[in-house]
Each structure stands twice: as C-alpha cells, then as structure tokens.
Amino acid sequence: MARLSSRDDLEALRAQIVERLDPERKAVAVCAGTGCVAYGSYKLTDAFRAEVERLGLDVEVRATGCHGFCERGPLVVVYPQKIFYQRVQPKDVVEILEKTVGEGEVLERLLYEDPVSGEKYTYEEDVPFYKHQQRLILGNNGRIDPTSLEDYLSIGGYSALAKAMFDMGADAVLEEVLAAKLRGRGGGGFEAGWKWKGCKEAPGQPKYVICNADEGDPGAFMDRSILEGNPHSVIEGMIIGAFTIGSSHGYVYVRNEYPLAVERLGIALQSAREAGLLGEDILGSGFSFDIRINKGGGAFVCGESTALMLSIEGEVGEPRAKHIHTVEAGVWDKPTNLNNVETWANVPHIVNRGSGWFSSIGTENSKGTKIFSLVGKVNNTGLVEVPMGITLREIVEKIGGGIPGGGTFKAVQTGGPSGGCLPESMLDLAVDFDELTKAGSMMGSGGMIVMDQNTCMVDVAKYFLDFLRFESCGKCVTCREGLKRLWEIVDRITRGEGREGDLELIEELSECVADASLCALGGTAPNPVLSTLRHFRAEYEAHIRDHKCPAKVCKELITFTIDAEKCTGCRVCAKKCPTGAITGEKKKLHVIDQTKCIKCRVCYESCPTKWAAVVVE
Amino acid sequence: MAQVVTYTIMGAEHEAERGTSLLAELRRHGYEVPSLCFNENLSPYGACRLCLVEVKKGRRQKLTTSCNYPVQDGIEVFLDTERVQRNRRMVLELLLAQAPKAPRELRALADRYGVTDIRFPLNGDEECILCGLCSRTCRELVGVNALTFSGRGDRKHMGTPYAEGSEVCILCGACVHVCPVSCIDLSESGGNRRIRRWDRELPMLVDEFGVPTMTTAQAEYMARRTGMPVETFGTLPAQRRSEK
Amino acid sequence: MDTAQVDRIIDRYGAEKSSLLAILQDIQGEEHWLPREAIGRVCERVGVSLAHLYRLATFFQAFSLEPRGKHICTVCMGTACHVRGAPMLVDKLERDLGIPAGGTSDDLEYTLETVNCVGACALGPLVIVDGEYHGNMTSTKLDKALKALGKAPVGADAEPEE
After folding, report:
1. Which pLDDT tens digit goes with each residue over B36-57?
2. What is the DSSP string of chain B?
C-alpha cells in the first residue's frame, strides 16, 4: 500500500477498496482467535484454501479475529447469507463449499441448536448468544482479516482519525470524550475524558500515551480478542488520544502470555506506519506519533498503572504512591495518559458518531457497552458485549444459556481478584460500575465466572488469596503478610481445622489489608473473601463447625466410596488408582481403602458414566 | 527557588518547603510517629506502614503513609486517629509474626502501642522485616549495589544476587548500621571481617598499633571515591572502627 | 550462550535500561532460561548492576534462572479453569512427572509450570504441552498426552473389563 499523505489520499483509497467490494461476494470467515486456534482453526483455514484452489472456486477464505462464541468453536460464517456454522471440522470443508457456498443449502448438523428448546438457528444474528448482545466493539471481528489494513479501511477505519485531526481539532475531541462520559474499561472505571484533560494541561514534554493490555484478571480475555481481531481499532483510538493530548510517544503494554495478540498488533502497527497513518506527519497533518510494543513479564501487579510505567522504565513493578497523579508525572516523571484496550477501542466510535449517541446507551453513570468474558459453569462460554444496565440474569440465562449438565446457579464472580461473588438473589442487579460496587463486587475488567452447586465458595476464596499472595509485589507489610495470613486461615478452614473466631479475624485483618496497603491490589484483595463471607457465611460455618464441605470439593472433608448397587467390577478404577487404594476382583464390588486414598478424583472420573459408581460425600 | 507551603498538624499551623517528606516534618516538630523503614538520608519506601496518618486534602480524607507523602499547601494532618491506631496495631502484629525472633526494637514498639497477642503462626527464626534499608543504603549512599530484594509477594527476600557472597561488597558495614532490627551480624576475627548473612569475608588492614581498621576493599573504595592514594586509608591512627 | 548472541539481542533494542525487559525476554525465548553469563554480559553493556538485573529476573514470572526441561507442561490456573478442575490436573502432573509445580526434572527432560491465565477460558481446564494447547482436559485425556511424552502413569491404558 502506498503512503497516504493526506485525508484525500485516505478517502480515495477507501473509495477504491469499497468499490471493489461485492456484497454478494461468496466468502467463508473462519474464526482465528486463540480459542478457535486451539481447537484447530488454522487447519480448517488451510483446508478451505486448499479445496478452493483445487476446485477452482471464486470464494474468499478469510481468517478473522475472535467471534466471541468460544464454546462452539471452530466457528465458520458463510457469506453473503451469514449462515452460522459451529464446531466445524476439516472433514466438513468440502461439503460446506459444495452445498452451502455453491448452492445455498444449509447443513443442519453444523447449525447451533439450543440445548433446552432444541430449536436450530441458521443466521448469526438469530443465534440467542448473539441476538441479545450489542456488538459495537466486537462486531467487526468477524468481518475483517485482522492482518489487513485494507479490510479495516473498508469498514470505515481511520475515518475518525481524519475527522478528529481535520474537522474537529484537539479541544473539540476532548469535549466529545468528556461529554460521552466514557469510563475506563480496565477496572478503575475512572472517566477517560478527565484523564485526557489532566494530561493535556500538565506541563512537560514529551507526553506519553499508554494502552494497558496486561489483562491480568484470570478468566478475562476481552482485550486479547480486540487486539487479535481488530488491532487497528485500538491504534486509531490511541492516535486520536495522542493528538488530543499532544503526545508523541505511545506504548502498548501487552501481557507476555498473549503471543498472538503481540504478533497481530505488530503487523497492524507496521502496516499503519507504511501507510503514513502512524509515525511522522500523519496524513500530512503535521502531527507525529508512534507506538512501541512492550511485553509484560508475567506479573499481575503490572496491570496497576504506576507498576506498569515502572516496568516500561526497566524497573520492577512495585507500585508507587499516587500523591502526584500519573497524568502529571508518569513514565520518567512525564505527563502520561494510560487507558485500557477496550477504552481506546471505543474512542473512534465516539468521534464518528458523537457523544450524544454514545451516552444514549447504558445507564446514568455508566455509558456505552461493556464486553464481558462469560466463563466457568455456563453453557455458552464466550465474549459477550452488552449495553450497561442489562441484568446479570439476562447475561447468564438468556445469553449464557444457563448452567450445563442440569446444574444449579450458585454464584457469579465479577471483577477478577479485586471483585466479589454475587449470589442467586442478586441476579436481577443491573450491571454497571456503581451497582456492582454497591453489591460488594466490582466491574473490574469484565471477567464473569459462573459457578454452580459443585463450586465451594470457601475454596474460591482460597484460590483468590493464593493468586494475590503470589502476585503481590511484596512491598507493604499489610498486603504481603496480610494476604499470607488470610490464606492460612481460609486454608485451615478448607482442611477442617477452622476455629471459632476465625471468621471475625478474617474480617478484622481484611479491613487492615484494604485500608493500609499502598495500591489497589492490596486495597481490593480482601473483596473475594469478604464477599463470599457476606453471601455464603453458612458454607464457611459448615466447614468450621460440622467439618463438612457442602459442595464436596475440599479434599480433607470428603470421602470417595464405591456404590455396591452400581459397581460392576470392571477394574478400571483399581488399575488407575495412583496409590493402589482400590481393591477388588473382576466382576466383584471394588472397595476404596480410605487410609490410602489421596482424593485425587481419578476413579471418580474414570468410572464409565453408564455406571457412575464412585460416590463423593 | 523552593515554594513554601502552609498546612496544619492536629489543627496547628506550620510551614514547610513544598514536597518535603511529611514524616520528616512531623518529627522535626517533635510529633511521635513510629516507623521502621524510613531514613532521612535515603529515598522513602513505604514498606512498613507504621508511619500512617490521616491527611485531608480538599474534601477527601485518606489514610496514608507519611514518609513518602510530599507536603502540599492546605493539607490537614491528623495523627493517632482511631483508624490510624487500629491499622498500626495490626501492622505490628503482622510484623511480629513475620519476624518472631522479636528483636527488641520491634518488641518496644509493640509494647508502646498495645499489641500483646499474636494471632498468627510464627515464621520460624526469621528476623528480617524486609524494610529495604540495607539495600537502599548500599545503592544510594555507598553505591556498590551488593544487596537486592528478590522474588515477589510473600516469597520476597533480601540478599545478594544468586545468594552468594557478592564480589562488589566491600564489607563497609553501612547495612549493619542502618538495619532497624539489628539482624545483620558483623564479626571480626583472625584479621578478617565477616558478615555471615551475606556470606562475605574479607581481610582487614591494621593501624600501627595492630588494631583492625577497615577492609582492604574499603580502602580501595575510598581511594576511588576521593582520588587519594590507597595508602592513605586503613593504616593511620584514628581510622579505627568506632566502638559499638 | 555466547557473547555475540547476547550482543545481537541487546543491539536489537538498544543498550538502555528501558530495554532490559525486552532483552531478557528474548534471551529467555532463545535459551528457555537466563544463563548467568548472559546476565553478566547484559549488565556490562547496559551499565546496570547485577543486583538490579537479578531483581528483575526474580520478580517477573516469565524468567527462569535455572535451565528448563526439554518438554514443558503448563497448566492454566485461571479462575474458569480452576472451577472446572485445574488443581486436580496439577496434582496429577506432579505425581506422574515426579516434579513439583514450577520444577524441572533432574534429567532436564520435563518442566511443570502453572500460569495465571492464557485467556482461552472456553477451553478450560487447559494444559499446554510443548506449545500446543489442549483444552477440556480430563485425567484420561492427560494420560494420552503423558503417554506421548513417555510418562504415562500405571493404568493409563486401562479399559473396563466386561
């Protein structure tokens, strides 16, 4: 692509690209997000390309970013009809090309079938998972090849940048972002416009603009999908931000565990540079700005803005006090504006469609849409983009399709390690920043983990404390020692060694950890244990007083036995038991020696489901 | 020219240079605020959390460490509030459980602020409170960088790279002097100085009376820093290590 | 790892403090650990103390100061994977590989690690073996993967006797 030296060049090129587009063009879009790639989608793309060539067909094969419905991958959408196929295998490729692409015939077996009603859906927009979403940010993932700048231009890419630089100017853009009340999507929920304003007005050069793509909350992968599926949308947002603030240097700090996101972002940056959309004198505006990628080193705490900035400087990620805000003194003590990936991706939409449009979506204080990763014990695992104000119940039941295997909903955990668990009684809560905080959790970056009756809430609290204890930078006594001691108490409880007074001690210590620690890691660390105590206290008490784990998870409090009525003496469990704890002759009842059993669950898993003779109590 | 600001401590008005450490100012005016990881000659760290105070700025009042809080115009500082005391006591309890060999400095603080019970399992024979003063001294004042934190979270540890005797350590003993809980041992015998904790032992120079003065490495270091000949150091009277 | 190799990596980013993480990541990427001589060379060229580099290398989980095994098994410990049974998989791998999580076998054949989320939650619980993602893991499926590594436990092929 030739370098674009002006807005006219950009629009002329766009017109050419759009003119070449044929809405009736036959194409197959194969999802190539990390999830589907793990399911083998590259093999699928290769198979399609090979067959198209062999058969000499005029069909475009496009490897796209994440479509969001990860549970049903590999996903393939057939254009122009937008027929939605799920769980596609390479052996289906020939038939898809011949029947669906060739004749418009639908292959029933590949359609999504609702597990409850049995109804099948042909078109993407009708599938219940997608129907109830509002996919402003993620919607384009399925339409474009993330490694193609041309594809991004064909859907209007970089028109917001041109409008911002040539029609509006920095002050007008700032006014729009402020009026839109765009709140940070990374967890803090702080209004982006105010950060931009603070940074713009702070004295000092150079100014820095950062995209926080560390996405450390376990269970959250929204940012990964945006970067893998539509990296230019983030780049465009950052350039607009940098232009508004007056910054010349940008960084995208990407989590080390996201190699595909790093790769696709790198390709996008390079093509943007070659096209003159990044670097010196962007589109002939006189404004220069470039972006560098920094990879994280595997430290959750580096998602905290001061720690992230220190790590860019080549220091360890130990947060520092924010008595002077980072917008005034951030990286190398220069004015720095940091925003999350999803926040940046919203910016081009706000510029193009206006703050009025943006603030018409959502609630009073939480505008726009939010992407959630709906995972755990839920039927339709994947990425869900919905307007703020939708209820938890709609997300979990309507979009998520409820709990698999006939299970019962027990809790949904939001906000990652800084958030909390909400019980069934709170399912009608409207999801927005303030409502979730009031309920004892928080929005966080958007992770939503659904739990069922087989999840022990005390074990969940222990899990988060273990995570935080390991990820704490270790500076503050209250965080480092406090989390260790909280873990010790909860661990004792899960092992049946809980004592009277433990719960009160947890509460007292939690208050200190939250109050007296320096940064938000320590400040929010007690939330998981406190929210589970608040909503599931009886479960803790059962562990302490009755030495029982109602969900049958905590090893020391459960026993595995073999049901005499169901066992057929097939010998599988005895052969697999790692400690030789199971004895029995062929076709005779098998018995587990409790003194040797290490509660590893292998017997429980390997007993054929038609008998399911191993019982947990 | 430094800006002078006005602020209050417990309602009383004071003046200070903008950006000075609040803890340093509080102590200058004779207020009692405990701390373990603060030293006026070094950059503040904010690890021990003992120097907590409450600061009101505009409409917001928050709990903060005072060592790394830069004094600003119009702030109102409150000491020993219920919130401060509650947190301080828990911090001391956590520190005593972390370093149960309970060096007298820690015990004295516990007694002073009313911490009697330790409700957490004791951490064996540990003495180090991870305040970082030793490594900050080694880096910022001595400049040889022999000591560092390693690891993270509750595995954080203070020591030398690869836990071996550091080649750059000159055994000057500055770390020994600055440690608030006196847990760095220094001994001299057989003409050598040794710090067991850092696994380092070096030969010493003696003055004309045969009294050990400093390590040969220290003399070389001083020669480097001052530009004076190395013979100037370690062999003249009045260069003996001062009595402990 | 020879000096020229390290220098090449340093020159890729520039011998500055702000490039340290990227330099270490590339060394880790090529060698699968951070050899001591490489660390020494970086200190020399960038002009930072060994103490500083040691601190960085031990703070970030991505780095290993010990050689790692030829085969690396990584279990994702994200929340979704946890509620779907990841801890049981870690226990099994510790038993069957004979090494603790985070450790490497004495013969440098196997390393077992945990990682705090790779963002493939729909596939949880997830185990990555030599770079390949294996989703919806069960102990039976894990037996197959272990067999391919030559570490199948006793009873891995057990079938019900009728």
Report:
1. 999 999 999 999 999 999 999 9
2. -PPEEEEEETTEEEEEETT-BHHHHHHHTT-----SS--TTS-----S-TTEEEEEETTEEEEEESTTPBP-TT-EEE-S-HHHHHHHHHHHHHHHHHSTT--HHHHHHHHHTT-----S---TT-------HHHHHIIIII-----EEES-GGG-EEE-GGGS--TT-----HHHHH-TT-----EEETTEEEEGGGTEEEEEEE-TTS-EEEEHHHHHHHHHHH-S-GGGSSSSTT-SPPP-
According to CATH, the topology of domain A369-452 is: Ubiquitin-like (UB roll) (3.10.20)
Domain count, chain B: 2
Domain spans of chain A, in order of start: 24-129, 157-358, 369-452, 457-545, 559-616
Pairing of strands A120-121, A112-113: antiparallel
What pLDDT does residue A498 have? Answer: 97
Which sequence spans correspond to the domains of chain C? Answer: 3-59, 71-148
Confidence of residue A440 (pLDDT cuts 50, 70, 90): confident
Residues B147, B216, single domain; the answer is: yes
Residue of chain B whose Cα is closest to the Cα of C55: B150
Q: Which domain holds residue B38?
A: 4-83
pLDDT per residue over A103-152, tens digit each? 989 999 999 998 878 899 999 999 999 999 999 999 999 889 999 999 99
Residues of chain B contacting residue C53, judged by C-beta atoms under 8 Å apart: 161
Asked whether the beta carbons of A29 and A73 are under 8 A apart, the reply is no
The CATH number for A457-545, chosen from 3.40.30.10, 1.20.1440.230, 1.10.260.40, 1.10.287.1490, is 1.20.1440.230
CB-CB neighbors (< 8 A) of C52 in chain B:
145, 148
Which residues are within 8 A (CB) of B156 and not within 5 positions of it... i.e. 6 or more apart?
A: A473, A474, A475, A480, B130, B149, B150
State whether C133 and A37 contact (CB < 8 Å).
Answer: yes
Tell whether C17 is within 8 A of chain B (Cβ).
no
Q: Give the Cα separation of B225 and A577 in Å (integer).
A: 68
CB contact under 8 A, B149 and C49: no
Q: Which CATH architecture has domain A559-616?
A: 2-Layer Sandwich (3.30)
CATH dotted code for A157-358: 3.40.50.11540
B209 touches chain C (CB under 8 A): no
Q: What is the ipTM of this complex?
A: 0.94
Distance, in Å, from the CA atom of B80 to the CA atom of B63, rounded to the nearest integer, reads 11
CA of A451 vs chain C CAs: smallest distance (Å):
7
The answer to whether residues B78 and B139 belong to one domain is no
Q: How far C122 CA sits from the closest chain B CA (Å)?
A: 29
CATH topology of domain A24-129: Glutaredoxin (3.40.30)
Length of chain C: 162
Any chain C CB within 8 A of the CB of A407? no
Q: Please report residues of C whose CB lies closer than 8 A to that of B165.
A: none
Q: Are the beta carbons of C133 and C115 closer than 8 angstroms?
A: no
Report pTM.
0.94
Question: Which chain C residue lies closest to B144 (C-alpha atoms)?
Answer: C49
Out of 3.40.50.720, 3.40.30.10, 3.30.565.10, 3.30.70.100, select the CATH number for domain C71-148.
Answer: 3.40.30.10
How many residues make up chain A in this entry? 617
Chain A positions touching B121 (Cβ under 8 A) are 488
